[in-house]
Specification:
Strand order of the largest sheet: 1-2-3-6
Helix content: 55-70%
Number of strands: 6
């Protein structure tokens, strides 16, 4: 072998030392990356817990919204029915329809059927017919 192609023991030791240094630096970089990965995994876990808590809070808020919406619908229906409810004042039946109050006669006949003023409480259709016909069965309360 020629001197040019021959590597001396010293050169091989230097090359080995360089490779060992590179390996050590790579191991240090790997350790740093492992620490960063662990920190990232913890952050992801915290984020997932946070998202789960927010999801639970959102589910709760949605259920509260649904309950509130149902309650509003019930109250709206109740308010609407108040407009068409009846009341008794001074032994006379007072019917409220369309925001106006009417005093109802005690007994009357419409068509072939006899009715009482109490029957009007549950028969809104008949109330509307009587009002539309300006029937004397219902007199406006002033």
């Amino acid at each position: 072998m020629s001197k040019e192609t021959e590597l001396t023991v010293e050169q091989l030791k230097e090359e080995l030392a360089g490779k060992e240094k590179e390996l050590s630096e790579a191991n240090d970089a790997l350790a740093t990356l492992k620490v960063a990965l662990e920190a990232a995994e913890k952050s992801v876990s915290v984020f997932e817990v946070s998202m789960a808590e927010k999801g639970t809070a959102l589910d709760f808020a949605n259920s509260q919204l649904a309950e509130s919406t149902a309650l509003v619908a019930q109250l709206s229906d109740a308010l609407s029915s108040l407009d068409d409810q009846s009341e008794v004042a001074n032994d006379q039946l007072i019917i409220t329809h369309g925001g106006k109050k009417y005093r109802a006669l005690g007994r009357f006949r419409y068509g072939s059927t006899e009715y009482t003023a109490e029957d009007l409480k549950s028969n809104k259709g008949l109330i509307k017919i009587l009002i539309d016909k300006n029937s004397s069965v219902l007199t406006p309360v002033v």
